């Protein structure tokens, strides 16, 4: 039984209920409303190339409070003056020359090679979905491949303005809902092929030894009925839950 505890990002800032070791990567997208919640929850913070520009430009009066541990990528987007600023504040700058991977994958390579993640780590990628659809598919494909390509970590969570998503491996899982996640708008989507058998509890519309596939049943627009959801699946499945568009 694998436990996924999303309470690390609760708005009240009380992370004691969660035992997640969190590493956060910000990609080159506009800052989402939850950016500071994930920053506060993380023990390792990384900018993927052009994300450095986003923070530098968006947080002009507060940028000294958001200095990453690492800026990584091919560094063709981060402006020289931005890189120099963060370097002067103690950030480690790592240029990765690999034209076969995007900046997010480069960050995962750095995190893995430098031992910055652990077997119990949750890696949160802020801004990885919710933009261009082809980029969304590329990052979901990365989630599927990352099960074997990058280690060690427990899971990678993709975050947008309105959703968070992570892969569930074949087997049994417990998901602890955070206060931040909305009750409505969760989903289970097959990735990489048919999900032959899936059973859930804690949802309004539970699945009972159901088969999920494109062209058939896909479980979307479901709802939490409990703060704890159980999922047993025969094949990899993408879990998605909804986030509020604004944070009070």
Detailed description of the structure:
- With 248 residues, the chain is an alpha/beta fold.
- It contains five helices and 15 strands.
Task: Map the helices and strands.
Layout: E1 2-5, E2 21-26, H1 35-41, E3 44-48, H2 51-58, E4 70-73, H3 80-88, E5 92-95, H4 103-113, E6 121-126, H5 133-149, E7 155-159, E8 163-168, E9 171-176, E10 184-190, E11 195-201, E12 210-212, E13 219-223, E14 228-233, E15 237-242
Radius of gyration: 18 Å
Q: Give the tally of β-strands.
A: 15
Strand pairing plus helix content: what structural class? Answer: alpha/beta
Average pLDDT across residues?
88
Tell me what portion of residues adopts beta-strand conformation: 25-35%
The dominant shape is: globular
Q: How would you briefly describe this protein structure?
A:
With 248 residues, the protein is α/β, with parallel strands linked by helices. Helix content is 21%, strand content 32%.
List descriptors.
248 residues; 21% helix; ten-stranded mixed sheet; alpha/beta; 32% strand
